[in-house]
Protein 1
Amino acid sequence: MIANFHEFISANDYLKWEAQQEIRYEYLDGQVYGMTGGTVPHNDITLNLATALKTFLRGTDCKVQMADVKVIFAEQGAYFYPDIVVTCDAQDRQARDGIRSPRLIVEVLSPGTAGFDYGQKFRRYRRLLSLQEYVLIDSETIGVDCYRHREDGQWQLTSYPDHGNRVELVSIGYSCPLAVIYENVDFIPPPNP
């Protein structure tokens, strides 16, 4: 993600302007950020999980969206495009402009966005009353971090560090081996020292 504007822009002006753009832009507290392109592993991971979730949720009240659907925090001054979002809200299923009540949000990390996804995005996402899980998937190596919203209001981290693990998405009653998420993903080997 790269910053595109250094001057404050209102949320209304952002929405009008972004609707006319060919690429996606996220918005946070008056600043607009252009979305950078992802790598092949990033795309493969997103497609693998979105496909598995769509199959699993077929026939339910939940809907899976990926990449080009924004999550709207109008009252909080933020609009984000997560890699995958699941909503089970009736109004969201018929929405045209974005999702307001996500149950599950997944971000596939890249080196340039990992800090933002763990930091500022998660701080905003946690404010959504509907959100039950926030999942961050590494695209450079195998690893998944899942934050679950507990009944006491705290967020609990569960890490899935290797292929032998099954990822549990409690918010929608889904689990799968990490191998499903990383199917046919080829990582670039680290350079030799």
Protein 2
Amino acid sequence: MTAPFWLTPAAYLIPAHFPTSAWWTHAPFASWLVDALRPMVVVELGTHYGYSAFAFAEAGKRLDVPMTVYALDTWRGDDHAGFYEDDVFDYVRTTAREDYADRVQLFRGYFSESRARFAKSSVDLLHIDGRHAYEDVLEDFTEWVDTVRDGGIVLFHDIAERDNGFGVWRLWEEVSVPGRSFAFDHGHGLGVLSIGKPQPALRALFEADAATAAGIRADFAHLGDVCAKQGWLLSLPVELEQVREVVRAQAENGQRQHDLIEDLHARLGLETEHVAALMTSTSWRVTGPLRTLGRLLRRG
């Protein structure tokens, strides 16, 4: 029995890096797409911790595709992803240098500042995952779509999110057309759009009937879940060490509180001994009448 066209060996590849990301479950499709499209130039608008960029680069390395991933981001964050410090950029830069020096290039700044670097029809795969308000994603798509060659692909992440100001779904409804688009529901949703006529290796994806499309979605959702579990297992030691740090800090704080209480008890014991010694001393007994007289005078 022949395996379905989408269940190729590439779909079972596991990324080498699993930084925090809402994109974990899309890595199997990313690997399949790299194998089918064989892109030379990949541009990513919005990289954050770099998971998707590294997933593309890792797939290219294992499949021997001589591709370059251009990752664009301010690495400052936004109101959807949250704001963060330079440690995020430092992680992405270090990982890119150590594992993908010849495959990943980082451009830090606003997307518009890098637009002139890319000629029209020079990009094979464009991944849009920046700010997610409708106006923002529309601007990104409008400014960058002409960089994608005929038969190239645009990916839209978060097409299934409709709350908290997300508007990618609106743009997806406007640009997706039968025969040139495919949508995944898992992992916050991923829209796949062919610019112009799809190339032969991808035509079956875009022309899939309802039953076949359901099978594609179910299989990649399952593979994505396996990938995410693998990522969770790989990240578990780090999470455990973080828990240990919290426990150690709490234990140290508890020990400090214990030592403080012990010190107070010791001081209280010394004061009690001092008072007891004073009350049994000769001077205390001799001055007893004076203390009695003082109490009587206060009552008077």
Protein 3
Amino acid sequence: MSLREDAPSLAVVGVTGAVGQEFLSVLSDRSFPYSSIKMLASKRSAGKRFTFEDKEYIIEELSADSFSGVDIALFSAGASISKKFGPIAVDFGSIVVDDSSAFRMDEDVPLVIPEVNPEALSHIKLGSGKGALIANPNCSTIICLMAATPLHQRAKLAASGAGAAAMEELEQQTREVLEGKQPTCEIFKQQNNMNVKVTATCIRVPVMRAHAESVNLQFEEPLDEDTARTILSNAPGVVVIDDRTSHRFPTPLAVSNKDEVAVGRIRRDVSLDGNYGLDLFVCSDQIRKGAALNAIQIAEMLL
């Protein structure tokens, strides 16, 4: 039991949905402390009863008055609900951790993966009486960046990783190419503009849980397979499954209901000279780390 009188009060918005139910599972698994929980959902679900951690709860209909006395509100009810009720919760002084796309592109709302950019929450304080919005990134983005970030910290991903000057040169190259001029190549060794084709394919496959991603990374500095494997093995929230002899690599089934992001098939990108590129295969439970767990980890940082 994580029920404590001195702990923050919680609200779970969209509690009857898949991620809402996973919120409760993660809260229990991690013994997240709370003094009370409001179980909020649509009018259709209001009045239903269920038991969580040996206590019976009645689901309440989400309304503008739902957030009185709520310290942390976990939202997973879709972007339209978040856009309507998220600011209302903030006005009540609640810190909202939103799992939808509603605020991800808002420059004033921190977009947070705790293992990647915890400093983004430094200005938000629980118990200050001041509400705030925090956005959970898209599940596929979380899963990818859990693997890419520790490698970026060692060898820097290109090209935006090259900094503002490189991005300005890319813009300059674009103008020059369109005007028929020779492109400036001071930071980049060759013409970068119109010299790369990115193709992404997303498909739905018959698995109950977990996303699988084939990721190609290009670096500014050399990074070989063995070094990358060591870095990833030591990265928080990441597990390496990369046994070529036994043909053991990440699979959706292996990571279902697990917290970690699994990385395997770590290979040098042979299309690049030297050790400046890597291919990875990444798998993780999109309902767990890709949604509920990441949100609860954000809430834990506020305690």
Protein 4
Amino acid sequence: MTFEGMWKELEPLGRAAHGGYFRQPFTSVDAELRDWFRGAARQREMTVEEDAFGNLVAWWGGVATAEVPGLLTGSHLDSVLDGGAYDGPLGVVSGFAAVDLLAERGVTPSRPVGVAAFAEEEGSRFGVACLGSRLATGAWSWEEARELRDRDGVWLGDAMATVLSSPGPGRSGARRESWVARVATFVELHVEQGRDLVERGASVGLGSGIWPHGRYRFDFTGEANHAGSTRMEDRHDPMLTYAMTALAANKQARLGGHRATFGRLEVSPNGTNAVPSRVTAWLDARAASSAGLDDLVATVRAQAEQRAGRDGTSLTVTAESTSAAVAFDAALVDVLGEGRGWPVIPTAAGHDAGVLAQAGVPTAMLFVRNPTGVSHSPDEHAETEDCLAGVEALADVLARLLA
């Protein structure tokens, strides 16, 4: 089946009437996505492995072993809430399409080639980005992960059990030695989340590295009271402390060339006519360096604490998920890009490729041009012509590695 045919099959899964995607992990939609993945693998007579954390790998040319480690490509199928079609799935569909193209060229793989679909990459349900790859590589332990709950209070293990036959580390293949250690090289293709390639006039680019980033929970507490009878000077309103904090984060990020986003908010008691007693807000912070990220978060926290002192409120900050800076294997990037003229660009978005790179797997990334730069939105898009150029680039990269 062609790239376009696979995309047409996948496109309606998890799509809301208004066009956005809700492909959260370990749900009925996730089960449909897994069925699609297994079907695509069957069409190519590829062998599918599923680990205890929900990660899927389809192998072409035999299953990778310790003696003959494989090449791996792929990405993820889950989305953010009300997300776009391309972030993640483009890399999975392109992986299968690249296998097809290699077969059409008459390539007989000298080692197994795998297409991966990592679980819970976005962290949209359980709050930890790249959770599947973190668990597979041992960057997170099951003992840590099993304590995670979603917004409805569902435990991770219970959610996994709805789509996996045996979730958790008791299943064979749960530890890193099951398949991550059988990967010689990982190349992830992804739609660009920005406009760098547009400005360069290039359809495809190579990744140089990933900015460090983190997710931080800010718990502001105050005193619930009546919206009408409580004088302004008598209030201990955590919403005011949060509001100043959001503005401070925006200012500090702009001053330093960083990224800071408060995109999720919970308010208690969440009544129109009541001063809230608690506001919980999640900060997504990113910077070009680890020092820049630390300074950004520390400055925002200090300003929030100062404001809390004036408002008579209190603040607790918890780092829920952090990722260090990643520099992709420079020698590998040079080899893959030799003679291609592809620009080499950094990304401020997190990826499973970063987790595998930190686990010691030689890793590279390919980016496909995004005409608007919009991502994590229903408006996310890539032209079919550029997607096909990405498939060809990925096939060329895999062929070069096989050779």
